[in-house]
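The instructor's notes for this session suggest beginning with a concrete chain rather than abstract definitions. Hand out the sequence below and ask the class to guess, before any prediction is shown, which regions might be ordered.
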Amino acid sequence: MTSRRLFLASASSAVAASAAEWPQWRGLARDGKSVESGLLKQWPAAGPKVLWTATGLGEGYSSYSIAAGKLYTQGQQGKTEYVIALDSNTGKKLWQTPAGGSYNESRGNGPRGTPTIDGQMLYSMSADGTLSVLNKADGKKQWDLNVVDKFGAHVIHWGMSESPLIDGPQVIVQPGGRGASVVALDKTNGKIIWKSGSDSAGYASAIAFDFGGIRNIVTFTGEGIVGLNGATGEQLWRYDKVSNRTANIATPLFTNGHLFVSSDYGTGCALLKLTAAAGKVKAEEVYFNRDMRNHYCSSVLVGEHVYGFSSNVLTCMKLMTGEVAWRDRSVGKGQLIFADGMLYLQGEGGVLALAEATPTAYKETARHAIGRGDYPVWTLPVISDRRLFVRDQDKLTCFALA
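After discussion, reveal the predicted structure:
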């Protein structure tokens, strides 16, 4: 089968997946949205019901992927990073497999990426740059490769943080090496399919989509937004204005021929319009402003509006114009995801909130304090099977949403 046909087969399988599954970073479409319905619009006074709590994950900010009743995440224990599988119904640990050396940093140790589920396999990136491929049933390692060493790169300041992208037969990651800023590897054995660019690595995870008859890969490197031909790695376009010199983290959003991109450290956001002709794709700036400055939070698109944390202020912005609809301090600086008409907000200080996803005003319907440990609560929460999963380092809590 051609790469294109393989991708379509993979995409068809993904669309058919249960609404209860969250198979990769930011969900089924890497857009921070769940398709589940029938969820609570308000929570009890004491907060949503706790179904179970699990410990023993170790250090780290890794989020989680969920499929077929199993939850997969990453954690550092001692001098080793692990990929860990739990029963998503009970929190019982099923297995853990070494998948990288230790990573220590004053703002928090351990892994940052989220495992990606692809069929029977699981792909993870450790903070030291080890790409591991495991059988998701039992954790048996199929192959691994330290991409930092392989491609002559270096571990960036806060650790390698991306979540591997599976696109048809390829696994796409960002080592940040000279001549190998972004690479596509054969997902079955790690052999190089293509290498592209010489940008240093960023902290963002790539997205893939079809446009102009071309499979497009878009990611935020350490120096700018780049659009690549998914079959060859050829750079189609780049846009550097939204980049900062400290940390580019947020995942780009693609919709209807447009890309929304953002970063913090005083930078801002941009909307890019894509055009295609003669087998090429170009990107043109529609607007740039400083009203949405995503730090570690990636924005979510609901209807015509983008919702995200502009530094530490929750902001609603009209996508096509950049016009701000409202701002609110909400839970303080944090993360958000969307499901069933509602924004699920998680403040880094340990507060959860539920708010309507509406451009008319900030309308919070529930709030619950969960507290925090020694570090901020930075792990992206996940919704699966009418449950909300929230991690604070070693501790994972499962809340009922129905």
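Then share the key points. The chain has a mean pLDDT of 95. The CA atoms of residues 121 and 308 lie 32 Å apart.
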